[in-house]
Specification:
The protein is an all-alpha fold. Helices cover 78% and strands 0% of the residues. Helix 5 packs antiparallel against helix 6. The chain is globular and about 50 Å long. The protein starts with a helix and ends with a helix. Pfam families: TRAM_LAG1_CLN8 (PF03798). One of its GO terms (biological process) is regulation of membrane lipid distribution. Keywords: Membrane, Transmembrane, Transmembrane helix.
Length: 175
């Protein structure tokens, strides 16, 4: 994940998530906006709304929040933290591929289920909790409109991810 690499190579980034961003970080967030826009349009055109409304909603929130970072050239570090969530997406997507290939009863699926759950806790739940905490602790340094967007974004994303975690647990571990 390029976001994780940015934090490793530029530890000063973790001290200032608002105004500091290393070379390429702004571009990474801008490309991510493009990806989420493309995926949003693809889902609108190729999937039924009742199948994709949650992801469309998720993508809308990400596009708005990342779009602010790209347009203002601020909060790029915060957006990079949010991109850490996507590390887990590798295993969520692999899970979908294995399901579509009817490989549910394989060692590969079981192993992926365990890794998926572990990365889900670390890179989704813990990251979102950390972001919520950071936003709350830094509220005096964030303009009210940006703070409102961030707070609403976290208030939407956190329950969505907790619900998905419950579904994964139920589906892969408590059948």
């Amino acid at each position: 994940n390029l976001s994780l690499r940015r934090f490793y190579l530029h530890p000063e980034l973790s001290k200032d998530l608002v105004g500091t961003h290393p070379p390429g970080a702004h571009s990474l967030v801008a490309v991510s906006v493009g990806y989420f826009l493309e995926d949003f349009v693809d889902m609108l055109c190729n999937q039924k709304l009742h199948q994709s409304w949650e992801l469309l909603f998720h993508h809308s929130v990400v596009i708005v929040c990342f779009g602010i970072a790209v347009l203002l050239h601020q909060y790029v570090g915060f957006a990079l933290v949010a991109l850490l969530v996507e590390i887990n997406s590798i295993f969520l997507h692999l899970r979908q591929i294995l399901l579509m290939a009817n490989l549910v009863h394989t060692t590969c699926y079981r192993l992926n289920s365990v890794v998926n759950l572990g990365t889900y806790v670390v890179f989704r739940i813990a990251t979102l909790a950390w972001m919520t905490r950071w936003l709350f602790l830094n509220r005096q340094n964030v303009p009210p409109a940006t703070y409102a967007v961030g707070t609403v974004g976290m208030a939407i994303m956190t329950p969505m991810n907790i619900i998905l975690f419950y579904r994964l647990l139920r589906s892969d571990f408590f059948k």
